[in-house]
Amino acid sequence: MSDGKRGTLIIIGGAEDKRADKRILKIVHGISGGQKSKIAIITTAAVNPDGAEKEYCKIFKDLGVKSVYGVKIDDREQANDEYHAELIEDADCIFFVGGDQLRISSILGGTKVHESLLRSLNSGKTIAGTSAGASMMSQVMVVEGKDDEAPRKCTLKMAPGMGMLRGVIIDQHFNQSGRIGRLLAAVAQNPSIIGLGIDENTAVIVDAALKFRVAGSGVVTVVDGREILYTNISEQNQNEPLAITNVKIHVLPEGYGFNINTKQGIMERDLNFKQNDNSEEEES
Which of 64, 83, 158, 226 is the most buried (most CB within 10 A)? Predict the structure, then answer.
């Protein structure tokens, strides 16, 4: 199915509907190739990897996926194994479950599996991730931070991510956990990057041109700090409340979008999420 063009990223804010409409997971299924697709479930982040694998395999099989299988990688030796790298490259879609994003980056980062993931993305395949599987996609990722309080300079800790989407930093469970403060702190520290705060049961779908559309029941909050005029982020007292002026914020519900290259919102609402060429028509 690859034509040499970069594939699609589906970045899910966590707690996606798995029982009723399953809208976001249906979009993953469709973009990955519909009934002809092969989906690999990566459980590295999960506290209960066997349970997570079983849950998502059943969901995608019920949606009609031809082949879905778990890839359980618990250490760097396994991540450098050719067998696991080949399982990645054989899939049309690689889906990361939630848990701890630092486990993903510290176990997979710089390994043969990591190289396979980047090759897969750059050859037209789909990479999807929910919760921790969303945060890890950026080059710099949020590891932890205090929720639901005024932004402070010590609000968060960051670490290198997996580098699938450059120029952004991603936070998930966003409005449900009150994480605007820690995303503002992240952007204040890195004003050249765009902050993406993704709500639960909501996804950002990033195409080859680095334009994304929003799907799901919540919103995506985009924080653009390039025109910040003042911030006290570099001053000494780490517990001091954050001062920040002239930051730009976009709030985007389903169908609206954003161009990561031009840093412009896409206000023409579009609810059609295109499938890959090997997808079959869905039954009405």
Answer: 158
- Beta bridge partners, 171, equal 197
What CA–CA distance (Å, rounded) separates 149 from 146?
A: 7
Q: Which residues pair with 60 in a beta bridge?
A: none
* Spatial separation of the C-alpha atoms in residues 210 and 259, rounded to whole Å: 6
Catalytic: 55? no
Active-site residue (options: 77, 82, 86, 149): 149
Q: Does domain 8-266 have CATH number 3.40.50.880?
A: yes
Q: What is the per-residue pLDDT for 275?
A: 60
Q: Which among 29, 114, 173, 250 is annotated as catalytic?
A: 173
* Segment 29-49, tens digit of pLDDT: 999 999 999 999 999 999 999
Residues 195, 182: Cα–Cα separation, whole Å? 10
Q: What dihedral do alpha carbons 167, 97, 209, 87 form, nearest 10°? A: 120
> Is-catalytic flag, 173?
yes
- What the block records as the tokens of 145 is 């931070």
Q: For the whole model, what pTM was predicted?
A: 0.94
> pLDDT (tens digit, 9 = 90+) per residue, 47-105?
999 999 999 999 999 999 989 999 999 999 999 999 999 999 999 999 999 999 999 99
Instruction: Give catalytic status of residue 131 as yes or no.
Output: yes
Residue boundaries of the structural domains of the chain: 8-266
Could you tell me the two tokens for 195? 């902050």
Is residue 154 predicted with pLDDT exceeding 80? no
Q: Indicate if the pLDDT at residue 283 is higher than 80.
A: no
